[in-house]
């Protein structure tokens, strides 16, 4: 898809920067400019498309949709709606309160909370640019499966008493759902592109810059030996290391791409990315305002185990399709 851009950047590196593509510096410069332009193009397209779809699913409407579903179907719907619904760690507390106040089961709420940060249009766009359609689609499917099963398991534990008491006493006012016309939907999508790109570009540049350094200078032999798909502990270590960090998919995917190019297992790299986005320490601190430590620990353990399993499955079955 982007062969034209690859060749154009190669000419830029060799004729403008006058650095050979065969050198580490040339390889790093090419990685930085190529990935930056490629990702921004796809990011803009995907954010616009998903934002247009999202205009039909404001949070209040999402809440009302989930109120209609019971049992495991509710978990599936919550995970699917998590894909097209805006979510960041700063919105976790009001979103959680709104779902609980609406009477949505705890497990269904967690299906949404797990899926939203892992799977979104920005992550899909960068995965598509970096790894191709197959990996991007499989990533989305596995993210939804983790959210669905994670929410079902948490729901089985019946931990409603580990939600802070004041949450059940709160009465949130219903928001009037405004129906948008086509012009307003297009404006919403364009504004969303500007807002999201403006908010995350720094993460993107930092991630691509780190990826460029790894791509050009990281020792492939060592990374392949200790973090390759044949190391039985690599995925587990990647998840444990990812939890204390804070970033988003935009910052971690370029790093994952560079690591995979150096021989790191694709499951190991993507598990690290999932852990950073779904189980970041700042989000846990915010959630502590509405849920007690035992429920937070359950959320981290259940989601973490799901991510580890997906990481190993990627290493076993997906390696080699890129």
Automatic annotation (TrEMBL):
Q: Would I find tRNA processing among this entry's keywords?
A: no
Compartmental location: Cell membrane
* Keywords assigned: Cell membrane, Membrane, Transmembrane, Transmembrane helix
Provide the membrane topology annotation: Multi-pass membrane protein
Keyword flag Cell cycle: no
The family classification in the record reads: Belongs to the UPF0718 family.
The protein here is known as Putative two-component membrane permease complex subunit
- In its UniProt entry, the species of origin is given as Clostridium tepidiprofundi DSM 19306
């Amino acid at each position: 898809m982007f062969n034209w851009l690859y060749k154009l950047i190669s000419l830029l590196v060799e004729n403008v920067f006058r650095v050979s593509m065969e050198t580490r510096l040339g390889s790093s410069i090419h990685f930085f400019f190529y990935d930056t332009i490629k990702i921004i193009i796809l990011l803009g397209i995907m954010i616009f498309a998903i934002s247009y779809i999202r205009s039909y699913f404001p949070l209040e409407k999402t809440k009302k949709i989930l109120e209609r579903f019971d049992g495991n179907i509710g978990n599936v719907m919550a995970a699917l709606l998590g894909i097209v619904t805006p979510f960041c760690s700063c919105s976790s507390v009001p979103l959680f309160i709104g779902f609980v106040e609406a009477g949505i089961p705890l497990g269904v709420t967690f299906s949404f909370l797990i899926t939203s940060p892992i799977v979104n249009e920005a992550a899909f766009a960068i995965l598509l640019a970096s790894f191709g359609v197959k990996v991007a689609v499989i990533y989305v499917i596995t993210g939804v499966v983790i959210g669905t099963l994670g929410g079902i398991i948490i729901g089985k534990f019946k931990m409603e008493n580990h939600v802070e008491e004041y949450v059940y006493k709160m009465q949130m006012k219903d928001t009037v759902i405004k129906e948008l016309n086509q012009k307003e939907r297009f404006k919403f999508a364009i504004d969303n592109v500007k807002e999201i790109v403006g908010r995350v570009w720094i993460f993107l540049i930092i991630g691509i810059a780190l990826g460029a350094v790894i791509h050009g200078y990281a020792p492939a032999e060592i990374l392949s030996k200790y973090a390759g798909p044949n190391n039985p502990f690599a995925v587990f270590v990647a998840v444990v290391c990812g939890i204390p960090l804070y970033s988003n998919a935009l910052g971690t995917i370029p790093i994952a791409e560079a690591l995979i190019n150096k021989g790191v297992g694709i499951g190991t790299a993507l598990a690290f990315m999932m852990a950073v986005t779904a189980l970041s320490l700042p989000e846990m601190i915010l959630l502590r305002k509405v849920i007690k430590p035992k429920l937070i620990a359950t959320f981290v353990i259940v989601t973490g185990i799901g991510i580890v399993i997906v990481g190993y499955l990627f290493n076993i079955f997906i390696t080699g399709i890129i």
